[in-house]
Amino acid sequence: MVIDSKKERRLIFFALLVLAIYLSPLFILQENAHIRVHDNLDSNLAWYKVLAKSGELFGSTHAVIPQIINGQLSRNAFGTEYSLIVWLYALFPTMLAYGLSQALTRVAAFFGMYLLLRDHFLTGDKWLLLQIGSALAFALTPFWPSGMLSTLGMPLALWALLNIRNGNGSWKDYLVLTIIPFYASIVLGFFFFLSAIGVLWLWDVFRGKGWNLRFLLALGYMTIIFMLVEYRLVYSFLFSKEPNSRDEYFHAHLPFGGAVRLFIKNYLLGHTHVLTVHTLFIVPATFIAIYFVFSKKLWQQEKLFVFLFTLNILLSLWYAFWFYDGWLPLTEKFHFMNTFNFARYHFLRPLVIYSAFALALKIISLQGIDWTKLAKWLIILQIFFLALCNDEIIYQDKPTVKEFFAEDLFEEIKEHIALPQEDYRIASIGLHPAVAQYNGFYTIDTYNNFYPLSYKHQFRKIIEKELAKNKTIRNYFDKWGGRCYIFTAQLGKRYMLKKDSKRHLRNLELNTDVFKEMGGRYIFSAIPIDNAEQNKLLLDKVFISKKAAWKIYLYKTL
């Protein structure tokens, strides 16, 4: 049967209109917009600006970023210059780049899921509304912004690979496989996707369907493109001999009961980097559908849905039990199990959950008129709920981008210090180092997952006494250390204290001698330090602005 192209165009136009409305606050409000802070404002957005201004965008594999941790941060830690997102931030103001990235990702996610459902998972014009509705819902998920197409591009890649697998491949499919690696990360999604597709190819072989060399070569082709684009990562993984901070990442720490609880939490609520917002409507829909499959013995007819339903459970189990302390004997023997996060197979879940959702709605619809109405309401409610998860609503109590980076305030601080920024080093207390980095300050603290282990150990001496007082921050720093921050026992993991905070640091114990040895001269503190003199610090001046989220107490070393 031929799809009603006019109806298809109308529904696609409506879906794109919804996406445009959803994205409009980013383009209308620009720096006055509210967006995610965690692993976004506190890191990536500052990194892009630092990289663009470092002069090392095309630096060699041995180059460093001078502005961060005394030039000990490798250029390779900031990823490849062949990523389109890097160029968006290099060419455009921060929030225009952010908005464009969001738009590119969500449009690609929509068309990818729609094509996958239309051509492979949910074929036929009868299901056009469910195809486009599910694709729109998928495109509205609050994905991790700097992940780009790392997860939301999976349906598009799967569509292309399945076309080739079925012998229907064209230049469009190979174009998709070529372009996606320039706007996705292999370690934040596609390693797990490509290895899973490799298992699919092996399954075909074992079932006697032949070697399907075109499918295998297409899979290898996309992998090679990723390797070329991510050549810095490949170089660091294969040739870097210096111990780095990831060598002290210890993931296996949960007892059996804790792993079970994490499984339930992940299955029902998801994960911050791959939020699917599936709890209220998708989980019930899939359980209703699996009930009909079970009660009416539809296992054969609905084997794809049953597979996806089961896979979703297994992915959450894998994620949770990756942190089970029963792995310890293996992680001690095979070090790469600590340095590489294999738990990220759960990054496949957005693809799995929304594909299963579409198939579940089909199964529900086939049970009668009333059930068809329920299926339509479920997709409408899911889209509506996702719309309510817009950043401008969810993060309305957080600082705006302008308030967070507070450029006017930090320009005032820079002018007060009146020295070239490269001539002194600073660290922050009660606010993310990314704020100072975004404003051009050279910092001895940072948030990065890949920096010299020797630097971590040296920096630890500054906060050694504070870590000794607080087990939470001690484990956080010693067993991970991605946030190389001036942690304090009193504040714990609170590092966003806004200007209305009434807190004081009362019993701070820093080794400022080590701080000075590392080049530290000033501390930007979000709250006053009552015993500053005991820490060989002198309050220089307090800075505050109506346009900034922070009040900065500028301390200099004695």
Write a brief caption for the model.
The protein has 558 residues and is mostly helical. It has helices spanning 5-29, 37-41, 44-54, 84-91, 94-121, 128-139, 149-152, 154-165, 171-179, 186-206, 213-229, 231-239, 256-269, 282-295, 303-321, 328-333, 336-339, 349-365, 369-388, 391-394, 401-405, 407-417, 433-438, 453-469, 471-478, 512-517; strands at residues 425-429, 446-447, 483-484, 520-525, 537-544, 551-557.
Fold and architecture overview:
The chain is mainly alpha-helical and 558 residues long. Helices cover 56% and strands 5% of the residues. The chain is built from 26 helices and six strands. Strands 1-4-6-5 form a four-stranded mixed sheet. Strands 2-3 form a two-stranded antiparallel sheet. Strand 5 (537-544) and strand 6 (551-557) form a beta hairpin. Helix 6 (128-139) runs antiparallel to helix 18. It starts with a helix and ends with a strand. The relative contact order is 0.11.
Tally the helices: 26
Unreliable segments (pLDDT under 50, ≥5 consecutive)? none
In helices, the fraction of residues equals: 55-70%
- State the secondary-structure class: mainly alpha
Q: State the end-to-end distance.
A: 81 Å
Shape: globular
Strand content: 5-15%
The main pleated sheet reads as: 4 strands, mixed
- Number of E-state strands: 6
Q: In what order do the strands lie side by side in the largest sheet?
A: 1-4-6-5
Radius of gyration: 25 Å
Averaged pLDDT, please? 93
